[in-house]
Amino acid sequence: MKYHLVTLGCQMNMSDSERVRNVLEGMGYQWVENEEEANIIGILACSVRQKAIDKVYSKIALWNKRKQSQNLITFISGCILPADEEKFLKLFDIVFAMRELPKFPQMLSQYGITTPAGLEKENLNPKEEINFFWKVKPKYNSSFEAFIPIQNGCDKFCSFCAVPYTRGREVSRPSVEIISEVRSLVEKGYKSITLLGQNVNSYGLDKKGAEINFAQLLEEIGKIGESTQHRFWVYFTSPHPRDMGREVIEVIAKYKCLGKQIHLPIQSGDDKVLIKMNRKHSVKKYRESIEAIRELIPQATLFTDIIVGFSGETEEQFQNTRKAMREFEYNMAYIAMYSKRPGAASYSWPDDVDHKIKKERLALLTEDLAEVSGKYNRNMVDKEFIILVRDTDRKSGYLSGQTEGKITVRFASEDKSLIGQFVKVKITSATNFSVEGELVEVESLQEV
How many CB atoms lie within 10 A of CB 332? Predict the structure, then answer.
C-alpha cells in the first residue's frame, strides 16, 4: 500500500505533514514521490491564500477522475476555513481537522482498511485533541533541519487573517515536551531547529502562570546549547510585535545556539492601517523592538511580512510603509498584495485598491528591499562566514547554504556529502539578492 502527501502553505503545515506521514507509515503505508502510484493521497491545505485553495480544487479534480479506473482514497486536512471545509466534504473521502489526526486510522478503517486502535481517543475537546496530536511523533523530512510546533491557533484576530478560524484559539504545547524534542534532535546531530507558532512570543500566556513564558522557554533551550559541543542554531517564527519584549531579545543575545535572525512582521508602516488591520501595535512600538535588537544583537538580520493594497490604503499610507522599509533595513521581506479571505473580518470591506496599483506598490517596495538588502550583502564581501549547507544550487556545480542570519550563500562545489554540514565560506561577490563565496574550511566546524 502506497501513499502520497501534498503540503501547501506555511512551515506549520510542513511540520504537521511530518506527523501525518508517521501515522500513515505506522499503518504500513509506503511513501511514493509519484502520486499516480499511490493508493491513498492527501493534501494539507491552506485557506489563508486563495491561490493555495485553487490548487486544492485542481488536484482533487484529477484524483476523482482517477477513481473511475482505480481504487483510490483521498483526504484533506490543514488550515481550512469552515466554508471551504463544507465544499471539500463533497469532494474528498475524508476531511478532518489536524488536531483529529490520532483518529485518522479509525476514519480509514471505514474504507475497509485494518488499522491499529492504539491511537484512537474519543470525546476529546479541541484543546485535548491538539495536546494528543502533539504526542504523535513526526517523521522528519530532513536529517539536519527540523520544525517543532510549540503552539497552535491565534488570539490576535488581525482583520485580514483567517488563521483564528482555521486553527482556533491559542493553545501552548507543554514545555517539557518541547524541550525534550529539542534535546533529542540535538543528540541526533540536527543543525537547524525552528520553533513554530502563529504567535510564538505569546507562548504560555494561555496557561495563566501554569507554564513558563517564551523567554523562559528560549532560556531552557539555550542551556541545552551550553551543555553540548554540538553546533546548532535555533530559530522561531512568527512573533507578534505587541508581545516582543526586551526579555526575549536579551535571551537570544545570551546564548550562542539561538540564531541571530529575527522575523518580526510589521505588515504596514502606517499607524492608521495597522489599526484597521487590528494589529494592536504601532510603528513606535515596533521601532522600540528594533532598537533593542540593534542594541543587544547588532549582528542580527531582520526579516518581515508586509501587505500592500489593504482595504482603503492611500498613497500616503503606502509611502509610510516605504519609509519603514528604508528605516529598518530589512534583509528580507515577504511582500504580498492584499486579497480577501472568507471568514476574516475584512472580507466584508471593499477591496478598493486597484489591482494595477497593488502591483505597482509591490514592485516599488521590492525595489526598496533590494536597495537595503543589497547594502548588507555587499558589506559581506571579503569576510568569512560559517554556513549550513542545505542543498545543491540552481547554478550548476554549486552548493547552497545559509549563514546564521539566514542569508543564502552559494559556493563552487559538487561534493554533496557537505549537505547538512557546517562549512566556512569567504564571500567573493554580492548583488541585491545574491551572495557568492569560496569554500575555506570544512573540518572542526560541527562543534562550537
Answer: 19
- Mean pLDDT value across the chain: 91
- Beta bridge pairs of residue 46: 79
What pLDDT shows up at residue 337? 94
Contact 351, 406 (CB under 8 A): no
pTM, 2 dp = 0.84
Per-residue DSSP letters for 269-335?
Answer: S-HHHHHHTT----HHHHHHHHHHHHHH-TT-EEEEEEEES-TT--HHHHHHHHHHHHHHT-SEEEE
* C-alpha distance across the termini of the chain, in Å: 44
Q: In a 10 Å sphere around its CB, with 0-12 CB exposed, 13-18 middle and 19+ buried, how is residue 23 labelled?
A: buried
What does the chain come to in residues?
448
Q: What one-character-per-residue DSSP string does 44-72 give?
A: EEETTSHHHHHHHHHHHHHHHHHTTTS--
Alpha-carbon torsion, ordered 296, 375, 258, 365, to 10 deg: 100
- At 194, the amino acid letter reads T
DSSP 175-186: HHHHHHHHHHHH
Residues 345, 348: Cα–Cα separation, whole Å? 7
3-class state of residue 124 by DSSP: coil
- Residue 354: per-residue pLDDT: 97
Pairing verdict, β 145-149 and 332-337: unpaired
Q: Write out pLDDT tens, residues 272-309.
A: 999 999 999 999 999 999 999 999 999 999 999 999 99
The kind and range of the H/E element at 106 are: helix 104-109
Give CA–CA dist 50/342, Å, rounded.
10
Fill in the DSSP letter of residue 34: S
Number of CB atoms found within 10 A of residue 358's CB? 21
Task: Report d(CA 100, CA 108) in Å as an integer.
Answer: 13
Contacts of 396 (CB under 8 A, 6+ apart): none
